[in-house]
Amino acid sequence: NAGVTQTPKFRILKIGQSMTLQCAQDMNHNYMYWYRQDPGMGLKLIYYSVGAGITDKGEVPNGYNVSRSTTEDFPLRLELAAPSQTSVYFCASSQGGDSNQPQHFGDGTRLSIL
Amino acid sequence: GENVEQHPSTLSVQEGDSAVIKCTYSDSASNYFPWYKQELGKRPQLIIDIRSNVGEKKDQRIAVTLNKTAKHFSLHITETQPEDSAVYFCAAHDYKLSFGAGTTVTVRA
Questions:
Q1: Chain A closest CA to B84's CA: distance in Å?
Q2: Is the preceding omega at residue A8 within 30 degrees of 0, hence cis?
Q3: Which of A92, A98, B43, B98 could form an SS bridge with A33, CB 3.0 to 4.6 Å?
Q4: How many CA within 13 A on the CB side of residue B106?
């Protein structure tokens, strides 16, 4: 049982490039989330999903897209990377049926846009 | 939407003393309040949580209290140890989790 797995761990992008941050969980959780954490700050919700085929915007969705084709995977796509997207990205999941369940986080992806 | 404020932003305590972190929330519909500990360069890890039908919860040296009327909740760490040094985040859940800005706790040996 690996929990929440994020890849890659580190990435440097040039302005205007695109990339996909991968997130997979093996706990059969229905709910999945993407957060970003800027230095010295708390976590801000980018997108979330309550099940396969269902996604919704969080607080800071601009510049990002997501998809949820399976229960296990929830990739986050950056289409045109900008310096403001330099951050640490965390994926999380929680048990379905009741959204008030503990969220389990991955190890994060540290992304720098230069 | 929900707004969570957390105080203090930094806290330095002597080993063995207690540490208290306080959070307020704005949405009376919030009904789940977790606390996360994040060590440098690591993922946030849940250390304790409380639901709105409970006023207090304790787990060894950690306790959380919730005052729904005043819309505030607090984390109490007793007998602090060096390994308690980390950033602590509170959060409140209405339809999503909203996080406080974090408290950097330093335990002085």
A1: 18
A2: yes
A3: A92
A4: 5
